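Deliverable D4.2, example record:
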Amino acid sequence: MGRKVKCDYSVIPGFVAQGLTGQQMADVLGCSYKSVNDRVKALGLKAQRIPSVFKSRNDKIISMHRQGVNMAKIGAQEGVSRERIRQILERQGVTGKAATEYRVNQRKTLSAETKNARCIAKHA
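Output generated by the structure prediction step:
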């Protein structure tokens, strides 16, 4: 069994309010993630699971995916693999259908515009 580490757990509510993750709190306090996580749960609080840096990145990834950009291109732009993009989208509850629906709607819009342009050219 490891040695007991004294931690000042009184600062945990402030850390949670700042949006720190359990691991970040453990690093600052100099104790284990499990100790911090147990204390957070005992206080009835909920620590951030994803650092805020990743939250904004994930929002950007979701937005690009919904615009029809494929996962490989998103991964190349963000510096991660296509598989990691798929995992992020899956964890955020975004399915591949969103991008597919966007592309289908884009094609319909483009074909409608093309038909209108041909009609105007023909009958003008």
